[in-house]
Amino acid sequence: MGVEQVNVLDGIKSAAREVLKENKAEVILGFTKGTLSNKCTPFFARTSQDINNLVWESGCNLNLAKYLLKTKKKAAIIVKGCDSRSIINLIKEKQIAREEIVIIGAYCPSTEGCPHCHYPDPVIADILISQKSEEIEKDSFNVNNENSLNKEFSTDQKIDYPDIEAFSAIPREQRKDYIYQEVSKCIRCYACRNVCPACYCKECFVEENLPGWLGKTTGIADNMIFHLTRAIHLAGRCVDCGACTRACPAGVNLSILNRKLAKDVKVYFSLETGMDLKEELALNEFRQDDPQPFLIGGGKDG
Amino acid sequence: MDDRKIIAFLCNWCSYAGADLAGISRFQYPPNLRIIRVPCSGRVDPLMIFEALKNADGVLVAGCHPGDCHYTSGNYVARRKFALVKSLLKFIGLEEERVQFDWISAAEGKDFAVTATKVANDVNKLEKWDRWGWSR
To answer: Which of A259, A265, A290, B18 is deepest in the core (most CB within 10 A)?
Structure first.
């Protein structure tokens, strides 16, 4: 823990104390030391003493937004970039009320674990403790506002998914083998779903019985359908926080499907999820001139 | 090769009526299609496409042309989903011809026959589908 992070932690603690003192929230959602070194565990601080136990270090890589969904009380939450984007989506989906929560934002302490992360800074915050630089923030908002409908299939230079592009470039059979191999590891524990802040359905499609949409076996076919449908359900909603991949006990590469769809949403609809409270979610709206490359003949006849 | 099954999700208002017109007009098309009538192309959940591929070799989804939806915007909503589904299936290594989408109106009986023939021929030309790895 560097000197700088200690200062950030002090800032977080004093902000949290202030919030409790002024009765803006009854509970502070944050992290405390876990039982394993370098793994922090979510922590609900209710008193001033509890706040002493808060930490802000590289092990704080869970997505705390998930816990907001289960908190009935007025809560304050300490967020990094991905948590804040999840919160934006949850507010848009009317799962939490903006006025019921206090957001304490700080620059992400665990960036090294997420090589593709562009938003370690909180996107939304009532109290901002630290951020990396103004420039990054400005840049990200430009991407968001840019209207690129006219050049729908041109490769936008700002689209930055090198891993996805590299995977798309390898031969089809190898891609299929890799995905089959990854997905066949799955033991269907649904840890990925349980940890995901975007998965809050009261009854998930995997548990529906009438009709039983999805087989319950860990056979490759059921696993494939589960993972594809899961990815589609998160299309335009996944903020790529990586919580599912970290939670997976079988080491399935879950993020490859999520990131592929995030890329497509950006290419087709020029949307990036969780950046703006006013923007609609990609699959909740439509435009008359949405691209339709999926049609027979490439959709030229419209 | 002719025993390959293709599940066709056709919207009640346009494409199903288009298929009907193809029948009435005596346009020939291959018998590989198994038609499932859905209220709207917006009803076609991607999960239904994935599940269909467990037991069929191909899937065709057809609905009203954009702007002509019986429910005003069902196919616009479907269009965004389909763009993502098609791209995802290609990404994970499915042949592009395995799952196809088209807009067919109630007046386009001929177009339905042409599309059905094209999809059936495409799927027949593909190597045998492993049904999501079941028959590997």
So the answer is: B18
